[in-house]
What we know:
By secondary structure, the protein is an alpha/beta fold. It has helices at 17-29, 58-68, 86-99, 114-120, 127-143, 180-189, 200-216, 248-260, 275-293; strands at 3-7, 34-37, 73-76, 79-80, 104-109, 149-150, 155-156, 173-177, 192-196, 224-233, 244-246, 265-269. Strands 1-2-3-5-8-9-10-12 form an 8-stranded parallel barrel, surrounded by 6 helices. Strand 9 (192-196), helix 7 (200-216) and strand 10 (224-233) form a beta-alpha-beta unit. Helix 2 (58-68) runs parallel beside helix 3 and helix 3 packs across helix 5.
Amino acid sequence: MVRFGICLPHYGKAMEPAGMKLFAEEAESLGFDSIWVTDHVIVPRERNMLYKERMLDPLSTLTYLAAVTSRMRIGTSVIVLPYRHPAFVAKAVATADLLSGGRVIFGAGVGALEGEFHALGANFAERGAVADEYLRAVRALWTDPDADFKGKYATVQGMRFSPLPAQTPHPPVWIGGSTKRAGRRAVELGDGWHATNVTPEQFSDIAAHMRHLSTMRGRATPPMLSVRMPVYFDREPEPGRMAWWGDDAAVAGQALPFIERGAEHLVFGFPDVSFDDAMSQLRRLADRVCSRLR
Length: 294
């Protein structure tokens, strides 16, 4: 059965502090299965992007969602692993998982915004290797509070980690990305692939690559497949932006091929709309799009 998620608009014009609780509660009452936060810390001034203005911290907001929801999964779509020490990420996500009663999905990725890496003192050139190592460290801390981890980019030795997450052995790890390297990372280090910015054909190709890798590496079950896409109701997206767009039937029709190719979880996002528009579009998604896809 396909499941449906929604991105919390914790950025841009829709970010209203009191509205975040209302949006999350409405999403839960409408039957959405998950709600998601995304990650940027500091954005270059010259970049014209959705996440540059009025953006709340994702890990703090994840913990907030643990308190204002009771049923939905809460997730990160996605945390850019090289931005933060793995012990910090492990602790923040474990805290949210514990406080939510074991509802976190940990979406993790490599990142691509070079200026942000430089501003944070993060390693852009080796970000893939850093992400792999940090993810191994996070998983080690979640499964053994006395874990000693020695790597090229991070070392944790002789320390005690707490709290452990509520889920055992740890929250599900979904690897974000749009390339075969992301698919490889999902097979090696994840429980799922959280696709972004891909066509149905690309999605199918990478999923097949993951099945092949899983067989070659003796993995019994390939990673779960999900996809996140912004929705532009009744208008076209900006040039060069991949999205599901048009009327209700068109949006559902563009999402359906991903389900047909194995996606088990669809996550919808919105462009930079007002809070009122985000609320009305949330209801429209539930009533007129998800209902068609179920």
